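Write out this protein's structure.
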Amino acid sequence: MALTMDKLMGIQQHTLGIRTRRAEVIANNIANADTPGYKAKGLDFQQALAQAQRGMESYKLARTHERHFSVEIKPQGTEKFRIPNQPDTGDGNTVDVQVEQNLYAKNALEYEMTMNFLNGRISGIKKALGGGQA
């Protein structure tokens, strides 16, 4: 029986990448808190996870001519604009820095939890294979 990453790591391999992407989106919101007209974005975790599990992490476009560029597109359907919790301050920016900081901290804890799970899983596999002390 062959072992694959899907069998070894399960869903956690996908959640780690999504949590990384979510951190990037939130950090981008925080960085643009003072940018007039900037609209805060969020990442739909469930939709992103479903896409990752179906193997829709990226699309590679076919090259029909040797001088065409090779292009790979990642789906952006999971990124959505946030509904603002506060009234417009006049500049059209919808970033609430306190909300974004809280979301970033929560995402960091979830990321760490996923890493701890994966580390435990790898440690258990090493122990089962007799290659390391767990």
